[in-house]
C-alpha cells in the first residue's frame, strides 16, 4: 500500500515505480540499485483524461510506455460502451496482466475500484476482495500496489491513518506513507510585482509496515516546475 493525503505525490511515486519496471531499472534505495529485465505494468487509474495526466507524467519520467497497460474500463458486450472496472472484474484484470507480461499491478486509488455497495470500513466487505487480490498476486507472480488516501482526523499511529478498514493494512506486506516536506518548498521571488511561482516541491516516502524483513530507509523525491 502507498498512502497519503491528496496532492502529496502518491501517483507520481507510483508512476516512477511503474517506469522502473518498464525499463528494468530499479530505484537506488540505500545503495542497492540494480538492473533487471524490463517487464509489463498494468495500471488502473480513475483519471478522466489519461493523455493529460498519467501518460504525460510517464513521458516526463521517460517510461517505456509499450510495457505499461493503462486499464481504464471494460466493454459491455451488448453495446460496447466502456464502463468502469471494479475488483469483481478479476478476469479482465488477469487478461491485461497476461497480455503485457506484467510484474506490477497498480490500483490508483483503491477506493475507486470497490464494487457498488462495498463499505470499505467494514472488514467483512474488504477481506474477500483483498483475498482475491492476494490470490491473483500469487498465481500470476505479480506485485500489487494499492494507492490509498488517508482518513480524516488525527490518529496518532501511522499504521491506522489509512482510509477504511484496518484489514487493508493487515493484508499488505508493506505500507508506505508519502507526504510533502512543506518546509523545503522553493519559490521564485519576482521583482516585477507578478505572483511567485512554485519552483520545487520535496516529498518523503517512509515505510510504516514491513512484515517480511526490517523496514527500509525513508527516501525522498522532488517535483520541479520544469
How is this structure best summarized?
The protein has 226 residues and is of the alpha/beta class. Helix content is 25%, strand content 25%.
Based on Cα principal axes, name the global outline: globular
Largest sheet features? 9 strands, mixed
Structural class, judged by helices and strands?
alpha/beta
The mean pLDDT is: 87
Q: How many individual β-strands?
A: 11
What does this structure look like?
This protein is α/β, with parallel strands linked by helices. 25% of the residues lie in helices and 25% in strands. It has helices spanning 10-23, 54-60, 90-100, 123-140, 166-171, and strands at residues 2-3, 40-45, 68-71, 74-75, 82-83, 102-108, 143-148, 174-180, 186-187, 198-210, 219-224. Strands 1, 2, 3, 6, 7, 8, 9, 10 and 11 form a nine-stranded mixed sheet that branches. Strands 4-5 form a two-stranded antiparallel ribbon. Strand 10 and strand 11 (219-224) form a beta hairpin. The radius of gyration is 18 Å and the shape is globular. The two termini are 29 Å apart. The model has no long low-confidence stretch (mean pLDDT 87).
Descriptive tags:
226 residues; alpha/beta; nine-stranded mixed beta sheet; two-stranded antiparallel sheet; globular
Secondary structure topology:
Elements: E1 2-3, H1 10-23, E2 40-45, H2 54-60, E3 68-71, E4 74-75, E5 82-83, H3 90-100, E6 102-108, H4 123-140, E7 143-148, H5 166-171, E8 174-180, E9 186-187, E10 198-210, E11 219-224
Helix pairs in contact: 3-4
